[in-house]
Amino acid sequence: MSATPSSLPPFDPGDPLGIDDLLTDEDRAVRATVRQWAADRVLPQIADWYERGELPDIRELARELGAIGALGMSLTGYGCAGASHVQYGLACLELEAADSGIRSLVSVQGSLAMYAIWRFGSEEQKQRWLPGMASGEIIGCFGLTEPDHGSDPASMRTHARREGSDWVLTGRKMWITNGSVAGVAVVWAHTDDGIRGFAVPTDSPGFSAPEIKHKWSLRASVTSELVLDEVRLPADAVLPGAKGLGAPLRCLGQARYGIVWGAMGAARTCFETAVDYARTREQFGRPIGGFQLTQAKLADMALELHKGVLLAHHLGRRCDAGTLRPEQISFGKLNNVREAIEICRTSRTILGANGISLEYPVMRHATNLESVLTYEGTAEMHQLVLGKALTGLDAFR
Fold first, then answer.
1. DSSP code of residue 149
2. Which pLDDT value is given to residue 3?
3. How confident is the model at residue 6 (pLDDT cuts 50, 70, 90)?
4. Of 104, 179, 216, 342, which is least surrounded by CB within 10 A?
5. Do both 22 and 99 map to the same domain?
6. DSSP single-letter state for residue 42
7. What positions does the domain Acyl-CoA dehydrogenase/oxidase N-terminal occupy (predicted)?
């Protein structure tokens, strides 16, 4: 502590811990590109999309996201950007700062559908699907969750049987982001050889994807059911490297990593909204930001927000170094989503009744995060993952 206050850089309320010092110029450039795209393309319309419960421009949005390199961002080859995992995380943060539904579009496309093909597919499958998915010309989805089997995917009922050299798939998948607009669905099914993954063209006879309506969360996102009614596929539709439940779980780990960052984007937007509101909203003759209880709320929110961002950075560096463990991703997903929800709820209290209006982003982010808390592993499942890691005892069964 040899530095004097006069020699120190000024305190930055937007980056109180100086986390930006950890970023390279390239990191900052990636962040700026995604932030500007979201500001230009999403923020002016997102409240309307959310209120209407639709994402009308999804195909055009996908192409634009492909043009800035945001799809399959950390993958290499096949038109993918080959960015670092930290850069992908920064992109997720900026996208979810606009809306969780937009980040979900990117996560499902890149971390689930594209990653599954990139990691487990044949060279022919990669050449067929990945360039178009990286450009946004082809949208993908990921079919694992079923109506009766969410946290227990090993009990899935979807099955695939051999008929000659073909595969025939039958079953249903539920809560599938991008499902009704996808050109390819990565579908997981039981076979006589265990759980296998399939790249299913969505124009295959017997495949349908009715959109799920009446959602009160992730309203600016396309969510569907997948119905596979005797869908016949050639032998080369199976992902040759995907055998057993570990394959889809590895894909989920990629998506969970993006959520660790993304949740902090939603939290940041709500926090900044609360700070701006507290500076200008007057009660009892002065701005409410001058009252002790409001400042206490803002201080606590800032602590959790920036600790969460610092945690995301740490996990990103470990991911780029090849040392990130699944338990550590659970640590990040559990903490950051839980704290993000609390930040949104506290922000709503500062805004009072205005907090429930779509004139402000707070309630939209709060309701979206209720879904983020559940998908890619519920809070309870991540608690059990960490509990097992800490004790060596399996409480799942």
1. B
2. 62
3. confident
4. 216
5. yes
6. T
7. 24-137
Contact 364, 335 (CB under 8 A): no
- What span, in angstroms and rounded, lies between the C-alpha atoms of 159 and 169? 6
Residue 209 is which amino acid?
Answer: A
Say if residue 256 is in the same domain as residue 370.
Answer: yes
Q: Is 282 a catalytic residue?
A: no
Helices marked H in 163-284: 246-280
Domain CATH number, residue 175: 2.40.110.10
pTM of the model: 0.95
**pLDDT per position as a tens digit, 40-67:** 999 999 999 999 999 998 999 999 999 9
Question: What would the pLDDT profile of 78-109 be if each residue is shown by its tens digit?
Answer: 999 999 999 999 999 999 999 999 999 999 99
Sign of the four-CA dihedral 277, 281, 283, 286: positive
Q: Helical H runs in the chain?
A: 25-41, 46-52, 58-67, 85-98, 100-107, 115-120, 123-135, 246-280, 292-321, 326-351, 362-374, 379-391
Contact 114, 233 (CB under 8 A): no
Q: What share of the chain is helix, strand, coil (3-state, %, to 5)?
A: 55, 15, 30
Q: What CA–CA distance (Å, rounded) separates 21 from 3?
A: 18
CATH of the domain at 80: 1.10.540.10
Category of 331 on φ-ψ map: left (φ > 0), alpha (ψ -120 to 50) or beta: alpha
- Given the residues 96, 225, 376, 380, select the one marked as catalytic: 376
Q: List Cβ<8 Å contacts ≥24 apart for 22-25.
A: 22/313, 23/86, 23/90
> Do 179 and 108 share a structural domain?
no
SS3 182: coil
